[in-house]
Amino acid sequence: MTLRLNETAPDFTADSTEGEIRFHEWIGDGYAVIFSHPKDFTPVCTTELGAMAGLAGEFAKRDAKIIGVSVDPVEEHHKWKSDIATFTGNEVSYPMVGDPEMKIAKLYGMLPASEDRVEGRTPADNATVRTVFIVGPDKKVKLSMTYPMTTGRNFDEILRALDSIRLTAQHKVATPAGWQPGGEVILTPAVSDEEARDKFGGFEQRLPYIRTAKLPD
């Protein structure tokens, strides 16, 4: 079954390159970004894990932890980390979870629950294990995005989405298409005109159902 937005992200305990992870406990009071990949030592995923390693500081600034998941054992992850650093110049410091029995992949709806063949699996067999999840401090799923194996993921977009998620959790606003931090926001119906004037110093009525404003610095 597909894991839907605002559902509780399934908890799990698993081995990782940083030791045992109890997922909900590990998240703590911040956000978590889970990104899965179908197989170690694959070209596109090598670039992705390196890209995430390079952005680790940006995620940390946003109180977000990074965790990778692969349908491979942890010992293979440790070997792969060397290739990732060689190719991308970035050392992987975040945990990479081993899921050789596909329990997490099934728990998160990335593989069918009926899938039971573990040995001899190819990247194509695990092609759907290509989802990014953002999980909030409340342990609810805030975002999920699934990419094909041939398309490298844009983690700058994940950062942008995380900025929006954090902002809209704090204020009764939404962000328009292509929004960037500091840009105009859309006021939700929960904000009265009076409140908008008080909190945002005014607003612009663009359409009968669209009011925009700038957040105060």
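^ that was protein a. below is b, sequence first then the tokens
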Amino acid sequence: MAYDQNNVFAKILCGEIPCNKVYEDDHALAFHDINPQAPVHVLVIPKGEYISMADFTANAPADLVVGFMRAVGKVARDLGLDGPGYRTISNAGPNSHQEVPHLHIHILGGKPLGPMLDQTF
């Protein structure tokens, strides 16, 4: 699948669409989710055209992979989630319900989150 340069996160990265920014560096941009699923719900996206974690880890330069993952950890620490705990989620493809075809990691926290998945599969 080719990267869609008109996806909402691509437009956020280039400044066409505003976001409620939490953090930004050379590798990543983090911002509050517009439809939060927990008291704290932040998205972290890499600066580059990557659809999923598989695409990113296969095709991104090593310094971007490392910088992006460090940004995810920094954002969680900066949000005060390191002590009480948090969840990271990255959906990939239609079976995961990935809504935006740009790699993004959800950081969720601020309350006990319960079990990971519904056990009725």
